[in-house]
Amino acid sequence: MNSSTGAESVLADGRVLRHLVAAVFRVWAMIAMACACNVASASDAIVAIVIDDLGNRPELDNRIVALPAPVTVAILPFTPGARQLSLHARQQGKEVLLHLPMEAHHDNHLLGAGALHRSMDDQLLGSHVAEAIASVPNAIGINNHMGSAFSEDPSAMRSLMQAIHRHRSLFYLDSRTTGGSVARQAAAAAHVPYLERDVFLDDVDEPAAIAAEFDHLVRIARQRGYALAIGHPYPTTLALLERRLPTLAEQGIKVVGIFSYMNYVAVQPSGAANPATTLLDTAP
Description:
Layout: H1 3-42, E1 45-54, H2 58-65, E2 72-75, H3 82-91, E3 96-102, H4 122-135, E4 139-146, H5 148-151, H6 154-166, E5 171-174, H7 183-190, E6 194-196, E7 199-200, H8 207-224, E8 226-231, H9 235-244, E9 253-255, H10 258-266, H11 269-272
Parallel strand pairs: 1-2, 1-8, 1-9, 2-3, 3-4, 4-5, 5-6, 7-8
Helix pairs in contact: 1-10, 4-6, 6-7
């Protein structure tokens, strides 16, 4: 066989493999949507809860994974526990996000490794995103760590969403660290599935404040049918979640993983109005 024929054979095999993978992901997405709809029919409302800033403190990380509900873990890239925590979380039925550091308006010394900056060109930013994704196996989506300045920059967000789109299977969750975020528009332009936070549980790390935000999450879910909260691995937050999560079912509210939440929102009338919130289909 000559080299030309060999190359054509490799390309053909690659195309067949891509079609097979695409078919598997389509089926997976359809199942997820069906499961999400079943979740909704079995209860009055659903909530997703994402816990950020994981990967540095094993004791707290393990308490998150042990929570009595399918909370989603958002792991910082290149942290000492990132890889092992990602694998352990999936084994325990928890879904995983890459918690990607992005330039903020202040306190950028707290960003950590792998941070994205507005000054990066498309190629450098794309390589940073790819390396960060590789450092957190099993990640099914990305949300921002800090990022108030980056999220407001249309050019930077366009570059980020293009990089995410190249990985096809990922979606973007906007933590909404700034009211001026352009993530929704950038995600829509790049055809990247998109979600955004409704509630920060622990902006104020005090028991009464966290309890009030948890109650706020419940109210939104009851009114709209679904709601999404983000919290952090603070002992105060963990204590509340360990106490309150088991009580949600009796209130007609079910906690679901972020994947089922995404696909449930996508088929709701309010979700359909958002061009960036689409059924998660990872087909190339």
